[in-house]
Amino acid sequence: MLYPQRLGQFTREHTDTIAALLCGLLLFFGWFALHLGWLGLAFLLLPAAYVIGGYESAREGLTTLFKEKELDVDLLMIVAAIGAASLGLWRREYHLIIDGAILILIFAISGALEGYAMARTERSIRSLMSLTPDTARVLLQGREEAIPISQLKVGDEIVVKPGELIPTDGIILSGYSTLNQAAITGESLPVEKTVGAEVFAGTLNGYGALQIKVHKPAQSSLIQRVIRLVEQAQTEAPPSQEFIDRFEKGYAKVIVVAGVLLATLPPFLWGWDWETTIYRALTFLVVASPCALMAAIMPTLLSGIANGARQGILFKNGAQLEKIGKVRAIAFDKTGTLTTGQVQVFQVIAASEYNQENVLKAAASVESYSEHPIGKAIVQAADDLDLVGAIQVQAIPGQGIVGIAQEQQIIVGNAVFVQQYVTNLPEELREMAQSLEQEGKTVVWVAQEGRGAGEQGSRGAEVMGVIAIADEVRSQAAATISRLKQLGIEQIVMLTGDNEETAQSVAKAVGIDRVYAQLLPEDKLDVIRLLQQKYQTVAMVGDGINDAPALAQASVGIAMGISGSDVALETADIVLMADKLEKIAVAIHLGRRSQAIVKQNIFVALSFIVLLLVGNFLGSINLPIGVIGHEGSTVLVTLSGLRLLK
Fold first, then answer.
1. How far apart are CA 10 and CA 284, in angstroms?
2. At how many degrees (to 10) do helices 39-67 and 73-91 cross?
3. pTM of the predicted model, to two decimals?
4. Cβ proximity of 534 and 485 under 8 Å
5. Which of 341, 419, 337 lies closest to 377 in space, CA to CA?
6. Given 333, 498, 573, 579, which residue is catalytic?
7. CA gap 216, 205 in Å, rounded
8. pLDDT per position as a tens digit, 209-252
9. Does the annotation count 333 as an active-site position?
10. CA geometry: angle at 407 spanning 403 and 413, to 5°?
């Protein structure tokens, strides 16, 4: 029972190839019969070759003619082939029927080869579609039950065993494992994941079993967004392809008019005989058709999109692959883009009577009860210390936090807040704090106040030291900026709503010379417009909701795929799936390479058309040679475009 099914599937997948093979066999036997003088058999086999080899082209050409009222190259090929056969019957020069059949055969072979070439790009892109399983193993009343992915709800708990694909985005509730995220983020090495970490659908679980809580609808998962965007990219034609499509419609009409003139005027103007005139006119219809020109762009851009997807760069459509190669200026958001958006302890400075460990341990003892990012950063820095639990902890929003640890009151906060408990701040620490703040760091003061058993009131607090907090600059940021400058990007700026000192500090660390600080979302939009007036094609890289207007205004909007907000991801034109800034340089190189290949393809296509036209008018090529040159150039530029898959 499986054999007929497999045969049917094989036939559907290779229809063009089978048609070309049958056409070739019928042509060969028809030529052989004609050579032996068996005209009846030849006139039976050769029309069958025409029908089988030319059916698909005739169908597409006639559909375009009747539905869109337009001529296309498929119909021109069929007209040329039938014209050659008619001329052969009229003049009883039956080799012309063979010439027409050869035209049909080569056109059929070309179509099959182009189909295989494009299928390679299609498979590369659509490999994303197979990255998620159909079902998920859900925990229901303590039992595992497999249900379709589409039925998963937020809050469901699922189990993923070693070696299985993660079915949907979620948060790990229990377990520890390494996940291969290469298919989603382009990261080559597995990533360690444990309780609290987010996992993405389509990533491959390693050696550990995981229990995961679904925290967003399955259709909103990262991989599903990728799939939708890739499907969208395949259906949207970039401006260059739209121009070629419009050009082809007008060009086909010009060819027909020119073909009619060439089929009627030469006998009166130059004394050609009618056979030569019509034959040259038919050859003209073939060699002047812009098939190669039509194939010069989309195979290249689709290959580039597939290449980018494999490297964790998602182009939403071919137009963005074109534009990224033309970018002359780039604007970066600071927080979450050039920096990780995760604050960390930069430096601990202790007063003379204390050491760094005392300061950090005291601060962490009360900050362990805080949900503030600064408090979490301090606790994380003190992770390897033996912390003492604090009591009577009270947080004052925007100022600081106090609590009692080991019968001592601990005060942690800004300078104004701490001064409520101490008589004065040490001058040396004050100068260091000012210097750190000028570098863009946030300074937290730490003080303690002794409370003896049975004491009434306090003895007065004293400063233990200061802790400098900073947003961590991405490790690859400086190298990315340097690489972009090497690529010839004329202007690189940083946009941020943060203060000038912090902005300048980050800009200096990564190598950016121009900074726009204290910006509102609409201010970022204005900066992008100013850059566009001077540099025309401008890219914006961001991750937050406040970046969305600037991402939309930019010629090319680039969003961070993991840390980026949903609004930024929807607004942007390109998404960096692994939040790797160095991929921006890769995207620009890919865009420039695609443009170079497109230009090469257009040059090759036009060169072949010109050479074949000249050869036709000089009488140095016949119809089969014209077909080989025409179809050969089409296959050549298609295969050339597939170079971007590597």
1. 37
2. 150
3. 0.64
4. no
5. 341
6. 333
7. 20
8. 899 998 888 766 666 665 565 555 445 555 665 666 666 667 76
9. yes
10. 30
